[in-house]
Here is the input.
Amino acid sequence: MTLLGKPNTRGCDGVGRPRLGRFFFAALAGWLAVSRAVAHEPLDISTRITIHGDRLELVSTLGTDGMRQLLASTGSSPAKIAESLRSLGPDKPVLHAPRVAARFFSCVSNGQPLVAKTVKSVSEGAEILLTVIFPRPAPGTLVVRATCYETIPGLHKGVLLIEDEPTGPLDSAMLSSAKMQLTVTVPD
Here is the structure.
């Protein structure tokens, strides 16, 4: 194509082929690399525990296959499992029985088990955001055990971060089937 008698090579590679195709494939490759880096694989897990003034909040991002196996281990019906994995949006969490928490993580404060108050999940397609609320642990020793490594065969290594809201980070660990427990001291 010519513009005022001169070949129009803007937006072309010098021989008349549009650069748009190359740009598109480069952008697609970049997007796939970034999305792969942030998305969870079906058996990935990462967990953050925050100790608030009135509760302990465990928030975990779990791949869908891991969540499916977790719910199946608690006797959830296939319909309940399908509902939990279906994306309903962040404003429509699925509530679960407290027995789900026991098969996922256990928390023991000064030798006394903490019993989950609420367990809810939100599906984001390839991953599930699982939130468990426990009573606030007493000052002293808190033992957190990732029972999910016994419940979910093949679960990948995952990071656990524990923080106290007013004082900051308490500890962190890379959890696996070989190392399922982290002990911290909860301040007054």
